[in-house]
Amino acid sequence: MDLRVAVGQKEQLLKEVQKEREVWRLRDGALAATLQEKDSLLQNLKEQLEIHQKRAETPSDSVQLSGLLKDQEGDGAILCQEVAKLTSALQEYQDLVQNQQESHSQTVSSLTDQLRDVRQELRQTEKEKKEAERTRRRDVEDRDREDRRLRDSLDKRDKLVEQILQDAEEWDHLFRELQQNLQNKREPMTAVKHTL
Question: 68, 52 in Cβ contact below 8 A?
Answer without folding.
Answer: yes
